[in-house]
Amino acid sequence: MTEHFASDRWDDEAVLPERPTDRIDDPVWDEEPAPGDLDLEERNSLRRVVGLSTELADVTEVEYRQLRLERVVLVSVWTSGTQQDADNTMFELKALAETAGSQVLDGLIQRRQHPDPATYIGSGKVQELREVVVSTGADTVICDGELTPAQLRTLEDRVGVKVVDRTALILDIFAQHAKSVEGKAQVELAQLNYLKQRLRGWGDSLSRQVGGRASSGAGIGGRGPGETKIETDRRRISHRISQLRHKLRDMEGTRAIKRADRQRHAVPSVAIVGYTNAGKSSLLNRLTHAGVLVEDALFATLDPTTRRATTDDGRVFTLTDTVGFVRHLPTDLVEAFRSTLEETTQADLLLHVVDGSDPDPLGQIAAVREVLHDVGAQDRPEQLVINKIDQADRDALAVLQLQVPDAILVSARTGEGVDDLRRVIEERLPVPQVEVRVLIPWARGDLVDRIHREGEIVALEHHDEGTRIDARVHPDLAAQVAAFTVTDDER
Ligand SMILES: Nc1nc2c(ncn2[C@@H]2O[C@H](COP(=O)(O)OP(=O)(O)OP(=O)(O)O)[C@@H](O)[C@H]2O)c(=O)[nH]1
Ligand SMILES: [Mg+2]
């Protein structure tokens, strides 16, 4: 076992802390029918994890952690809604799993009133799940939703392979995709928060086991070395969390300055928001030739990209691409990306992009609006944009159009409807309010440029002495050109 491998294993451990020492010689575990090599490998890897968890000293490794899920079985509990809804959720989970790099072997949906508190799917179904896992040769089970540490543990014990939840999966995708220093820090923070909660559960069970085994172990003596280590780990994690929070606050400050700068120059801003994979980056590229990464993968974009664009009448505005949303985005991630999404709370217009070819566009719209609400952007002007009309079903599209009559239909791929969209953006961008009538001397061409860019020109004439302009501009610019105001008799 190489050192490199070792740290990889620890990385896996980060998201799915397992009980460290007890499992290998746990008699119950040994009695389980061995599903061959897989089980053997699993035990080996567990054994490896034991030694490695001490390496938690370097918590920064969480940043680079990947689950490396390979062959997975998906499980979801279906509590309400139609069969179709349940299937859609499952397909989304599949897309998420594939984005994380895994091969989906099978998917099981369990109908229940509530997820089972002990085993999520209900103890009767666990055996069935185990059979599917063994027969497909899966190495991982991914559960939809967010499971408690105890549920994850119980399922792992009884199914015999690694079990992760949707939250861990999404965190993993974010970790793989984060590019900027800030994005990485945000994901790491969310991962550490997730990990910290899991450590707590782990600590509880450990202390019980240690106490049980060294049966004299009540009171002080009952604090096994494992528990002490966990507490050390938790302290380290807490320390790292507060470091990251500091770092992020600083970076947030820098961004706020940049944003304030744009605001002072009164450049209107448009933020492109929407469900992951809706085509936000494609649309940004279409509107600005920005060359932003477009991928048929969820969460391709994690770092907000801002580009300048110009309306037909020459006004400059900014367009910002944002991280995609998804149903039940882990709260920690919403929290972590709050600063990134702050862009949206300041935007003059939100372009809410919807994948018109998705089976449940209204569900996507609702999920996105929920996140917008969470970050405090619910009162921003919103323009719905139904994208991918080239591949959407015509009938479904017609129905959708009735449901959201104000939406604009486009295809970022073919360019269809994009001109309409430009026109609507232009109409909905805030128009500068102060009317000015000025004669700008030739030497101040910079001011003429600014009026072009930041204001709206009503009339323009070239005179011998300079440029005569009637325009509507923002108050800041109005003040700067005030010295060149013309009176009626100069007209
Ligand atoms: N057929 C069709 N496909 C599109 C259209 N717009 C985008 N796509 C495809 O949809 C996929 C996702 O596009 P992106 O632009 O990366 O979507 P996004 O919303 O930025 O996704 P994330 O950043 O992952 O949240 C890519 O495979 C695009 O080629 C469209 O109008 N028609
Ligand atoms: Mg994108």
What can you see in these coordinates?
The protein is α/β, with parallel strands linked by helices and 491 residues long. It folds into three domains: 3-238, Rossmann fold; 266-428, Rossmann fold (3-Layer(aba) Sandwich), CATH 3.40.50.300; 434-490. It is 49% helix and 16% strand. It has 18 helices and 13 strands. Strands 6-7-5-8-9-10 form a six-stranded mixed beta sheet, with helices on both faces. Strands 2-1-3-4 form a four-stranded parallel beta sheet, sandwiched between helices. Helix 1 (3-15) crosses helix 4 and helix 9 packs antiparallel against helix 10. The chain is elongated. The structure holds guanosine-5'-triphosphate and magnesium ion. Residues 274, 276-282, 294-296, 298-301, 324, 387-388, 390-391, 411-413 line the site of guanosine-5'-triphosphate (GTP). Belongs to the TRAFAC class OBG-HflX-like GTPase superfamily. HflX GTPase family. Keywords: Cytoplasm, GTP-binding, Magnesium, Metal-binding, Nucleotide-binding. It comes from Brooklawnia cerclae. Monomer. Associates with the 50S ribosomal subunit. Residues 1-38, 206-231 are annotated as: Disordered.
